[in-house]
Amino acid sequence: MLFRSPDGFKLSDEAEGEIEALTGRDDLPRPTGAGLGRLESDPGAEEEYVAAVAATVPEGLAGLRVVLDCAHGAAFRVAPQLFQALGARVTVLNDRPDGLNINAGCGALHPEALQEAVKRDGADAGLAFDGDADRVIAVDERGQVVDGDQILAVAALHLGRAGRLPGSAVVATVMSNLGLERALEAAGIRLVRTRVGDRYVLEAMRQGGYALGGEQSGHVIFLEHATTGDGLVAGAQLLRIMRETGRRLSELAAVMVRYPQVLVNVELPGRDVADRLAASRAVGEAVARAEKALAGRGRVLVRASGTEPVVRVMVEGEDAARVEVLARDLAAVIRRELG
Fold first, then answer.
1. Phi and psi (nearest 5°) for 255?
2. Residues 282-337: pLDDT tens digits?
3. Per-residue pLDDT tens for 173-204?
4. What does the pLDDT average to over 32-56?
5. 149 occurs within a structural domain
6. Is 13 contained in some domain?
7. Based on the structure, what is the number of domains in the chain?
8. Could you tell me if 92 and 223 lie in one domain?
9. Residue 72 lies inside a defined structural domain of this protein
10. Cβ contact 290:330 at 8 Å
11. What's the pLDDT score for residue 35?
């Protein structure tokens, strides 16, 4: 279940904590059957939503051919309606939800079928949504994946040139690729990093008065048009940029070069993983050695998961083989010292 505040934004951690504390109480009423309430449907909601998102692309998308992977999820009706209303030629994949097949081998989590369909159909682009359609991963005309970081880079440079990027800054998490930071720096745009989670991206955007932010996973927030990550809004804005510039998606995405990035999850016993990690001198020294080895041409991130007894190790840099070795060595130190 997802709660939102009256202004349409996600609740703060504190507010969600209060709700969780209340729902965990034993003295609350526990209705069953008819006492649970009733479901009310608004037959005009889909039309209103499609019209609202279409209004963010007033020029339309006539002439573009796009393949949509709806992940057997929330976008299965509204995504085709939206892009057809905008004038694009649309091919639809995975739009037959049965209650069990959501995200099953498809959508933003599994874009392989979309990549093949884009190449087979000679489409200009493909858009893969996840089950609840708050994320989008794109595919260019060559069948190459364009992830959330690349979408942010394309949008940031375009909005910056148009004078529509407040503060000349973009917000992303600590997991966003160093290539995004480098691409933005080259254009005089600052990258503001937050902890992992789209809620923290949005908080930083609101606090700083920024208009664009998101995650590598495809949560992209265009605050001018939506109060949260919305895959259809983000996909429509990406295609709008293609239409306005007359450039192929592969050309636009080439502004960002992905640095090799290795992620290793180290599972550990106990519930005090974060405390042990913070207190470990040996781990701190290992991180410092890895950072020295990268010589300013990469990043090292070691953090404890907030939901499970796992330490996540991320190393990225110019040399893929070197990055792999550094990440595995760090993981070995963490297992030895904290396991």
1. -65, -20
2. 999 999 999 999 999 999 999 999 889 999 999 999 999 999 999 999 999 999 99
3. 999 999 999 999 999 999 999 999 999 999 99
4. 88
5. yes
6. no
7. 2
8. yes
9. yes
10. yes
11. 77
CA atoms within 13 A on the CB side of 321: 0
Q: How far apart are CA 224 and CA 154, in angstroms?
A: 16
Question: Angle at CA 240, nearest 5°, toward 238 and 244?
Answer: 125
CB of 91 closer than 8 Å to CB of 121: yes
Residue 155 CA to residue 243 CA, distance in Å, equals 13
More confidently predicted of 270 and 277? 277
Quickly tell me which residue has 């990549």 as its tokens: 115
> Where among 195, 227, 253 does a domain terminate?
253
Q: Is residue 28 part of a domain?
A: no
Domain enclosing residue 284, as ranges:
261-338
Q: In degrees rounded to 5, what are phi and psi of residue 119?
A: -65, -45
Q: How many CA atoms lie within 13 A of 84 on its CB side?
A: 9
Domain check: are 158 and 247 in the same one? Answer: yes
Chosen domain end from 253, 283, 299:
253
pLDDT value for 40: 81
**DSSP label at 67?**
E
Report the C-alpha gap between 164 and 322 in whole angstroms. 39
What one-letter code names the amino acid at 69?
D
Counting beta carbons within 10 angstroms of the beta carbon of residue 206, is it exposed (0 to 12), middle (13 to 18) or buried (19 or more)? middle
**How far, in Å, CA of 181 to CA of 174, rounded?**
11
Q: Give dist(CA 17, CA 3) in Å, integer.
A: 12
CATH number of domain containing 247: 3.40.120.10
